[in-house]
Amino acid sequence: MRKHEILERLRSSGALGIIRVQTSSDLVRIAQALREGGLQCLEITMTTPGALEAIAESRERLPDVLMGAGTVLDAVTARQAILAGAQFLVTPTVEPEVIEVAHRYGVPVIPGAMTPTEILACWEAGADMVKVFPASVLGPGYIRAVRGPLPQIPLAPTGGITAENAGDFIRAGAALVCAGGWLVDKTALAEGRFEVLTEKASRLIAAVEAARKEVS
Length: 216
Fold this sequence. Notes:
Helix content: 40-55%
CATH topology: TIM Barrel
Shape: globular
Distance between the termini: 28 Å
């Protein structure tokens, strides 16, 4: 799949699921559960043990899902993730060398930023979207305000996103919302209740779709 096709799928999906857990067990099962709930774009963070193997296996088992690598902090990790099959890269901070590697391999990159200066720096360095973190602290109003002077930059708020507030961020102008901690419920995982993840994914998608209808 070409870069522009991946970006179009990210934008059209409206929601990205972030898998950040402490052990490598059940990584692929988590991805499957989220896919069953309707999420077509997922990210496995590189802070998770076995992330590279999970990305490769998920690509094989879930060929219809866009699978990315998150928390990519340097060029070496970026290249490893891409070779493992990651279709896009996400960083928590402004990382020019990760953007450079992504460009080299023709892979979309979504670096993280907070301030308008950082957001613009990411964009000028070649970001395809900019992750705005922490969204739970900044709020939907911040997204709306930043889009005033920087309407050309697709923003993907991350941090504290739930089915209850996702619509607010979409209505504020977010191109994509990224949900992690709320979505991949640790209590449910500990109890082996993957259906909870599926249900939350479904609610998140429904919230995004409802908000998009309101602003279309």
